[in-house]
Structure formats: C-alpha cells, structure tokens
C-alpha cells in the first residue's frame, strides 16, 4: 500500500535546541536496543518506543522475522545533550555531524544528540540513527555486498519516517533533508552513480549530490510504479556475476532516459510512501531505570571508551577514570569502566584486577567479564610461558558463556586462545567462530578470521563467498583493501582444487 504526501524538496530547516548543564542519565532496555540517554525518563521511553516501532516496520517490510537477539547483540545508543558533544566524540570538525554508528561484535554502538520524540516528524538525530540502523539491518539480512548507490539509497529510503498518534508509522517519505544537496551540490552523472569505481575515480573534491541521487533512484524504482520489478532484477543480475554497470544497463536500459525520469520525479508535487498500521508493529516491554550517582559520574569515561581511543587519548582518559573509581571504589559499573580504561592504556594487570573486583560486586555484569577476557588475552600474549594465563582465559570465557550463550566475545576468544597456544583448531572452536559471524555479520575483523580459518581448512568455495562483502566494500575499492587481493588468491586456489578433483577422463584430449 502507498500513501501520497506533498513534497517541498527544496525547503530545509535545522533547529538546534540549547542544552542545559545538569545531567540526568537514564537507561532504557528493550528487545532490540539499549538506550542510555542524558534525558528525562518520559523522553527516553518515547524514543525507545519509536525505535522498536521502526525496527518492527523495517523487518516487516523486508519480510524478515522479528527475532529477539541476545542482550549484547542489541545496539547500544548513547544520547548526549548536544550535537557539539557528538562531534567532539567523533573528532568531527565540520560542525554538521548529528550522530554516528560503530558496528562491532558484542558491542555495536551509536552516538546521537538528544531527541524530541513528540509529534509525527523525526528529529535530525533520529534520521541519522535510522540511516545507520538500516545499514546495520541490511548486513544481517544479506551476505552480498551491494553497490554503493544501492546501499546508501536503501538507508536513505528507510531513514525517512513519520510516527502516527495511533501507533502506526510511515517509511519511505520524501528525503527533505537532501533538498539543499540536490539543488546546490555538484551533480553526479548517472554512469558515476551506478558504478562505484567510476564514481571513486571522478569524484569531485567538493560536496556532491551522491546521497540525494541515490535516494532518488531507490525511491523512484521502489515507489513510482514506472519500472516494476527492475530493482529485484538488478540485484539478481549482480548476484549472477554482472558488473555494476552491466547490471544497470541490462536492467534499466537507456541510462540517459533513466536520468531524465529521475529528474522529472523530483519535480513532482507529491510522492508516495509506505504506511504501516499499528496492528502490524510490535514494541515489546521496555524497562527504564535512572543511573545511580556513581554510574552517572562514570558516563563521560564510558562514552569515550566505547567510542574508541588511540594511545594518547587513552593516556589522557585513564587519570579521569581512576579519579572516579577513587570516589566510588565499590561500584561495579565504575570498576568495569576503570578496567576498560586500564586495558586501553596497556595496563593489563590493573585491568584484570579492576574487572575481578567488579565481578565480585556484580557477578553477572557482562562488561566486567568482557574486560577480564580482554585483559587475560593480552597478558597471555605478552608472556613467554602463556599456558597459565590461557587456562585463566578459557575459564573466563566459560564464565561469560554461561551468563550469555550467544555473546560473540567468548566464541571469538576461545578460537583465539587455541591459536595463541599453537594448538589445532577444534571443530567446536571453528563452528563457534562461524557462529560469532552469524551474530555479528557486520564485524569485519571476525569475518576476516572466519575466512582465514576456512582457507586453512581448504574450504575455498565458502571462504570466497564469505570474503565477498569485504572485497566489494564500496568505501574501499583500491589498494587500501587487502580483501581484494586475498579474494583473487582464494579464487586461484579454488580453481586449482576443482581441477585437481576433476577425473582425467572428464578432460577432453588435445585436439579433440
């Protein structure tokens, strides 16, 4: 079903609300999200409900089951008071950033500025988050890497949403936030849009309309009704081995004509979107608690640690973490944050001590167990006789696995512990690593390890398919992507394996 909405593609306003100084941290836990926000309880609840409605709508439109993930495989969203705080965390100096997302096994995180969840329309922060979450979901529903225009067009399409008072919502609305870009930015030719390599070679140094044009093409193919089935046919052509440009030419025909149709589509006074009734959406239970004084004091430390730090940043952060821990020496969340800061500074024994103390205070605190695993792994790597540390590491891995069976970190580090010990990789360890990739298909490091293990097993066909998303990463198309060369190496070994296993009687004699 489609609904029409009036379009004013060249009207765009951004409102930035002033932030007050007093922190008021709340944590909302739902089926698919953990939201930690410096906002009032009412606002945090409304925002989390919207997230769950969005997730349910997105999965429903994609025809996917709305499964409940293990707690640590949810996305954790940190909501800070201002866009300036987001930009500082990201190291962004443009002044435009409103949020960003970092996918990682057992710890995918997003950082956005505060949201106002009243009314139908979404905030700029929500729009950024929905864009990134659409990417997150795409990784989970498809093992194939798509062309850059499709990936960004998909994310932009599902980033435009509205929430109805009756509990329903709409997706695929006009991308008003791309209005200025489409009108004023450097234009991207249709051939550049449809071929990632060509775009990378010709990309101007200035700001262009790639995202806006990607949204336009995706929305046009999905919603206009003028080219039914072409989006599906295009993807099928790619899966069957066509290059990006070949798939486009085969499916869309005259690309100049397609470009004209897209331009005409933008000039329409109305565009359709997809309404979803409340009866088709599932929110589930949401529990909210206010962070205690110690947890709130540790939040600035936690935000920087979860963002990720380099050695200089870690050295600057550690004294602050130690100061908070000195004030709240028995709080498990503070001790867990201290363990992470000590680890990031290279103080692995101190990290282990802090993690152990946190576990004594809160035996089921997952992050404390994760930090203990990290610390023990580093201690094992940095000693000439690692067996004692590896024994401790495997014990810590088992402890976390008992708390949360589908946490990917124990699966990953059990495999690594065998590698560190120089032992043969057991079938259980190999399958555990593959399970970690199933749980976190967006984690590139885990994918790389899985591929290497498959190559060691001479399972070249599966290794090739598993590596494809990395080799076809639209953001890394050159020499900076080692997966491209590795893929070619795997293909060569695969071809040799096929030839070696082909009976000689099946090979035609020369001249026949």
From TrEMBL:
DUF1570 domain span: 131-223
Protein name per its UniProtKB record: DUF1570 domain-containing protein
InterPro entries on file: DUF1570, TPR-like_helical_dom_sf
Stretch forming the signal peptide: 1-21
Domain of life of the native organism: Bacteria
Record's keyword terms, sorted: Signal
Pfam hit, one: DUF1570
């Amino acid at each position: 079903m489609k609904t029409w909405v009036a379009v004013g593609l060249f009207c765009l306003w951004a409102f930035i609300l002033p932030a007050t100084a007093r922190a008021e941290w709340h944590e909302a836990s739902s089926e698919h999200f953990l939201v930690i926000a410096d906002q009032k309880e009412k606002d945090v609840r409304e925002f989390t409900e919207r997230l769950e409605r969005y997730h349910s709508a997105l999965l429903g439109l994609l025809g996917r089951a709305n499964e409940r993930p293990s707690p640590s495989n949810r996305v954790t969203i940190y909501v800070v008071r201002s866009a300036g705080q987001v930009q500082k965390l990201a190291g962004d100096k443009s002044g435009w950033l409103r949020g960003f997302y970092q996918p990682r096994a057992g710890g995918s995180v997003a950082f956005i500025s505060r949201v106002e969840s009243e009314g139908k329309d979404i905030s700029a922060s929500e729009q950024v988050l929905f864009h990134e979450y659409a990417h997150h979901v795409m990784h989970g529903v498809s093992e194939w890497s798509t062309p850059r225009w499709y990936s960004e067009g998909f994310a932009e399409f599902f980033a435009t949403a509205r929430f109805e008072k009756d509990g329903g919502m709409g997706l695929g609305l006009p991308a008003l936030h791309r209005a200025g870009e489409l009108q004023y930015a450097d234009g991207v030719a249709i051939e550049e849009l449809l071929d990632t390599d060509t775009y990378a070679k010709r990309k101007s140094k200035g700001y262009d309309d790639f995202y806006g044009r990607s949204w336009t093409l995706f929305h046009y193919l999905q919603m206009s009704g003028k080219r039914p089935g072409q989006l599906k046919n295009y993807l099928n052509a790619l899966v069957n081995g066509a290059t990006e440009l070949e798939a486009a030419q085969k499916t869309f025909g005259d690309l100049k004509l397609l470009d004209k149709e897209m331009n005409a589509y933008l000039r329409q006074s109305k565009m359709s979107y997809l309404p979803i009734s409340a009866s088709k959406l599932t929110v589930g239970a949401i529990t909210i608690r206010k962070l205690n004084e110690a947890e709130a004091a540790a939040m600035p430390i936690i935000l920087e640690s979860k963002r990720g730090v380099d050695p200089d940043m870690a050295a600057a952060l550690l004294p602050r973490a130690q100061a908070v821990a000195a004030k709240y020496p028995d709080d498990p969340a503070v001790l867990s944050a201290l363990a992470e800061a000590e680890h990031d500074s290279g103080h692995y024994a101190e990290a282990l001590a802090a993690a152990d103390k946190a576990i004594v205070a809160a035996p089921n605190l997952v992050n404390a167990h994760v930090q203990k695993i990290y610390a023990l792994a580093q201690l094992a790597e940095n000693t000439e006789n690692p067996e004692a540390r590896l024994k401790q590491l495997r014990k810590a891995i088992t402890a976390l696995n008992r708390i949360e069976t589908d946490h990917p970190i124990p699966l990953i580090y059990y495999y690594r512990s065998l590698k560190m010990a120089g032992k043969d990789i057991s079938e259980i360890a190999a399958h555990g690593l593959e399970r970690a990739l199933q749980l976190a298909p967006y984690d590139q490091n885990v994918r790389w390890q899985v591929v290497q293990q498959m190559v060691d097993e001479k399972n070249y066909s599966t290794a090739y398919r598993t590596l494809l998303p990395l080799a076809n990463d639209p953001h890394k198309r050159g020499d900076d992507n080692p997966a491209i060369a590795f893929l070619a190496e795997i293909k060569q070994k695969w071809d040799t394996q096929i030839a070696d296993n082909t009976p000689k009687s099946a090979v035609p004699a020369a001249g026949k």
